[in-house]
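job 3f2a | input accepted
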Amino acid sequence: MAGKEFERLVEIMAELRSEHGCDWDKAQTHETLKPYLIEESYKVLSAIDSKDDEELKEELGDVLLQVVFHAQIAKERGAFTISDVVKTLNDKLVRRHPHVFGDAEGYSYSRWEEIKAKEKGNEKRTSIGDVNKALPGLSMARRVQENAAAVGFDWTKAEEVWAKVHEEIEEVKNANNNEELQEEIGDLLFAIVNLSRFLTVDPERAIRMATEKFISRFEQMEKLIEEDGKEMEALSPQILDGYWNKVKELSKESE
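job 3f2a | predicted structure (255 res):
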């Protein structure tokens, strides 16, 4: 069943890009589709957070559409086809899991990175791995820390990480210029990501949740100010802070 539906998807995409297809679909390139792939990926994360299976099903389909879309464009360029994409993935999965499809015993991070390095013709690899530098900053920091930890370079307990966070806060306070300040804030954020990892919290998800909470409370504050017949721009920071605290109390009461 999955094979037939996938074939139908590939056919639909080819039709959309055909001479008699959709003008918008025909106009797209790998470059113009880049923001949609990122957007759809974040929608999947949102669906996972909401624990809505129907939404997750739909958003995973939208990510799959992006894969098929890029493959169709590549086919038209004579580069590769969707079959090549699937075959490459299948072969890679088998090759990188010798403990499942071969004679190796158990999963090994170092073996995984060694296989990846050989695939790319690069024997001079580092234990940190091949990091995707297009990741959001917090996610990239977490990935680097996880890779380092996998080969034993890590803190031994959360208390040590707490101490590092406090140390970095002091260094931010003592920065002498903007260049130093930028470096020290970066170190502080890196330390906070480490702390998040030790507390089994995804820092990227945490900051997004905090930002969404701020947006929600800010909108509630605006509504309260409007109901009181006032304009936000005309209010002092002290009065605004009072409204903000009121919104926080209302949020706690509704939880």
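job 3f2a | The chain has three domains: 2-93, 137-201, 204-254.
job 3f2a | closed
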